[in-house]
Design goal:
The chain is α+β, with helices and mostly antiparallel strands. The chain has one domain. Helix content is 36%, strand content 28%. The protein has three helices and four strands, in the order ααββββα. A four-stranded antiparallel sheet has the order 1-2-3-4. Strand 2 and strand 3 form a beta hairpin. The longest helix is centred in the N-terminal third of the chain and has 13 residues. The two termini are 15 Å apart. The protein binds zinc ion. The site of zinc ion (ZN) has 7 residues, from helix 3. Zinc ion binds next to helix 3.
């Protein structure tokens, strides 16, 4: 599946990336730049990926009532993308 053709709107993902804290953005971009993202599942309503090298975390992007719902095993504040979600967000919008 083309990664640009998902249930997620690119604008919504980019907006979420922008809301992340500067440090989470920087660290997430570092992970993205290093290619530390392994997509495990990519379907029409779900994206699951392993993120990072040393401390691996699992991030899920789900469609819930046409809204982006996300989870990360690092259990950070769910209102703002953690660095892992930033990395996955960059992966699917770049
Ligand atoms: Zn995380």
């Amino acid at each position: 599946m083309n990664r640009k053709e998902t249930f997620l709107s690119q604008e919504e993902v980019k907006a979420m990336i922008k809301l992340s804290t500067p440090s989470n953005f920087r660290l997430g971009k570092e992970i993205f730049d290093k290619g530390g993202i392994e997509i495990i599942e990519f379907t029409s309503d779900k994206i699951i990926a392993n993120i990072g090298e040393n401390q691996r975390r699992k991030v899920e992007f789900l469609s819930l009532s046409n809204r982006l719902q996300w989870n990360c095993t690092c259990n950070r504040n769910q209102n703002k993308f953690c660095k892992h979600a930033v990395a996955l967000g960059l992966e699917i919008t770049n």
